[in-house]
Design a protein that fits this description.
With 396 residues, the chain is α+β, with helices and mostly antiparallel strands. Helix content is 53%, strand content 11%. It binds (3S,6S)-3,6-bis(2-methylpropyl)piperazine-2,5-dione.
Length: 396
């Protein structure tokens, strides 16, 4: 019997294990991780709503060393409100539609044309990964020429945050990556303090936003880099896979009908949630689903399991875009039914940006899908964040 997220068959396909523990009463204790796995939708939602009982303490060891400081999810109260507002200013409202949407569209078009100039290409390595990093650098206001370098550091930092087991050598390498990135960012920060622009880095530097120190700005910049980049190509690749395997009607509708395309994105986020788990720690002895979880224990809220809970979603393993309504914004707000952006106090603040970015890039992709076909198998990896590592495509 499978008992741990670390069992090899779970990496290949975690969903049977999620279902198994969902159907067993109580909260599953993972003996190898020494952590509690919350898998049912109601329980995950309830844990994420109770932010003083289920705290973000695990991020102090899992994230802080490579973020060079605390990330937004570790903050509460006025500090949280102030820094959240500073970031929101740079990624919402008119700046999103008027400044960033055209840039993102241009970027997606250029990168996809580059990828498609080959007879056979890989949507992950030839398009998605490049797109994800460059889209994030666009909002941070960092020039494209640095993308290669930053991507290497980003990969190390992501590895540190999202691996469930790692070696001493790996951790050393990952921390070195974050130190390099910090040293790279500092001169940019100093420059933006004197010559602010409208990019996020400039906004974080402005004293009106609480007068953050260099190291606070570094931590939030790395936080944004990771949170915006890591889920983006995963979602676009899964979306493409769903559309291509759903028959010609799906690809045609996705191209012609913006509302349908948006429902497809929401359904992709539900069915293949790029962030599969959210770590928390109990502040005191807590009873959840009839199980006593002692104070100070690590719990993993399994988003990937909750979003396929049959008690909440009909035919949970099927791709059914229409379940999300009709192209409204709701699945990308705190009122969302699925939990792909989390829930409660630390609901993803980039959700509106994600919606714009994903719909814009998906529209560019959708225009070409009728002329593309799968040219091999989708391969996936990851348990914290999970996504395709390759999706081979070719022209029809
Ligand atoms: C960056 C995991 C991609 C966040 C994290 C240490 C904190 C926080 C999340 C998301 C997505 C990333 N957690 N974003 O789950 O900022």
């Amino acid at each position: 019997m499978t008992t741990s997220l670390l069992d090899p068959e779970v990496m290949v396909d975690p969903y049977p294990f999620y279902r198994e523990i969902q159907h067993t009463p109580g909260i599953h204790h993972d003996p190898r991780l020494n952590a509690w796995l919350i898998s049912r939708y109601d329980a995950v939602r309830s844990a994420l709503s109770q932010d003083t009982l289920f705290t973000t303490a695990p991020l102090a060891t899992r994230a802080e060393p490579v973020m060079r400081g605390r990330v937004l999810a570790q903050m509460t109260g006025s500090e949280h409100a102030l820094k959240m507002a500073a970031i929101m200013k740079g990624i919402s409202g008119r700046i999103l539609t008027e400044r960033y949407a055209p840039l993102i569209e241009k970027l997606a078009t250029r990168l996809l044309n580059d990828a498609m100039s080959q007879d056979h290409f890989d949507l992950v390595t030839d398009f998605g990964r490049r797109f994800a990093v460059l889209a994030t650098l666009t909002i941070l206001g960092i020039d494209e020429e640095y993308a290669q370098q930053i991507r290497g550091w980003h990969d190390g930092i992501t590895h540190y945050v999202t691996s469930l087991v790692s070696t001493e050598d790996e951790r050393r390498h990952d921390i070195a990556c974050s130190e390099h990135l910090e040293q790279f960012l500092l001169p940019f920060i100093h420059e933006r303090r004197h010559h602010p622009d409208t990019d996020l880095l400039s906004l974080l530097c402005q004293t009106s936003n609480g007068g953050m120190t260099d190291s606070e700005v570094v931590a939030l910049a790395i936080n944004i880099l990771l949170a915006a980049t890591e889920p983006s190509d995963k979602t676009l690749t899964y979306l493409t896979y769903h559309l291509l395997t759903h028959g010609p009607d799906a690809t045609a509708s996705a191209h012609q009908d913006q509302a349908y395309l948006q429902d497809c994105i929401a359904e992709t986020l539900r069915l293949h949630s790029p962030v599969q788990l959210i770590p928390r720690q109990t502040a005191q002895d807590t009873i959840l689903d009839g199980t006593l979880i002692p104070a100070g224990e690590t719990v993993f809220c399994l988003i990937g399991a909750a979003n396929r809970d049959a008690a909440v979603f009909d035919h949970p393993t099927e791709f059914r875009p229409h379940r999300h309504g009709s192209g409204g914004a709701r699945p990308f707000t705190a009122a969302a039914h699925h939990l792909a952006f989390g829930h409660g106090l630390h609901f993803c603040i980039g959700a509106a940006f994600a919606r714009m970015q994903l719909t814009t890039a998906a529209a560019v992709l959708a225009a070409h899908l009728p002329h593309l076909r799968l040219d091999g198998n989708l391969a996936e990896s990851g348990l914290y964040t999970r996504g395709p590592i390759t999706l081979p495509l070719s022209h029809r």
